[in-house]
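Homework help thread (please don't just give me the answer)

Our assignment gives two proteins as sequence + structure token strings and asks us to describe the second one. The first is just a warm-up. Here they are:
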Amino acid sequence: MKRLDGVEVGALILLLAAIVLALLHWESVQRVIGYVLHEPPPATQAPAASPSPATPTVTARVSPPASQPAAQLQVPAASQPLPALRDSDRAFADALGELLGPARLAQWWVADHLIIHLVATIDNLPRAQVPQRAWPVRPTPGSLQVQRQDGSLVLAPANSARYAPYMAMVRMVDPQRLVAVYLRFYPLFQQAWRELGYPHGSFNQRLLQVIDNLLEAPEPAAALQLVQPHVLYQYADPGLEAASAGQKILMRIGPANERLVKAKLRALRAQLLLHMHAAAPAPTASQAH
């Protein structure tokens, strides 16, 4: 067998380093889920029959908009100790069940590691795609509904009916009560955010960034034209195709559903801001003495 000389060894090391660097982002997204499940992260798979394209490109983290207040979330003192993150499913599910109904929660939401799934999914919504393995809810039943219109492939109006179970939950959620549950369990959300690979900042700031990104989703007036270059559908309009994964979801669920979700997001954002206050300035050198 031929021995590798110094140049070949160096090239091999560079190749392995490139592969590792390419995998780093996906591993950071799946790290907290993988360590809880004690499983290695699987290969990325795009959801079937979705207009979101399968692409390895990951967008950079979204910067806070200039209008976003530089404030910190004020979490009330806990009336009782919280469970450990890995043991929080029952307590958190009970709290969500009071808002959504236990039957709906059991039917549509994942049963295990729910806070971890929520944090991972929310963090990915402004990116190019959301890994299906991280979703906190079960996949939408049925397949994407398309039809031909004037010689073009378009998203069928009937497709929006597939999301009826989720819209029913959106309608019944009281933003004030939802924020109260969020505040109660916020230390666990923050812990999951840290373990996902973010040593700085707060999950709440990321949540506000994501809400702002979703509120900027386009609202096409005409039927959405699609193309199918391979197995999955894509938006024919390059501008729509370049939208974030979360914005594509909002466009896919139909105009009426999109307006409903955005109205709830605005109400949720308003409730969050009620619990945010300006951070105390760091003491100056003169004040320190």
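The one we have to describe:
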Amino acid sequence: MTTIGVAVAIPEPWASQLQEYRVSIGDDTATRIPTHITLVPPLEVSTADLEVIEGHLMSAAARVPSFVVHLRGTGTFRPVSDVVYVMLAEGVAGCERLAAEVRKGPLATELEFPYHPHVTIAHDLDEAALDRAFKDLAGFECRFEAVDFHLYTHDEAAGWQPRREFALTAPTEAP
């Protein structure tokens, strides 16, 4: 069995900035998690099925055009979950469409919570650290074109590792 995840990677320099911030407030798990927007949360699959899953993800990528992601400000899932995140001011619909496409076929799965695209910046920390993250990054902002997404596999020693990248289609031009 292999544990996989599917996500849109946050590009540099923002990926490193957010990861370094996360580590700086005591969230050491961030050293083993690339900065991302989750499409499929951790899921255990048969290693033998990875080739079929990759084919499915390639097909999903071909059906979804690239889209703009604008990250701005912070939000939280508290009190349900001890998570603080950077919000998507733009790109929610693109992430929802992409997530719906990849969570079909071999990756059809029930989610524990409704899908809410975000970038985690603090997770399972004490209240003071969560409050600090919420305030410190309230002014964070960046904008990028989501042109691809990744299949990640989890390695006990190294954490989440990209296995393969899937390019989205070019956006269609308005007539």
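TA reply:
I won't write it for you, but here's a hint about the kind of observation we're looking for: The chain has one domain: 2-167.
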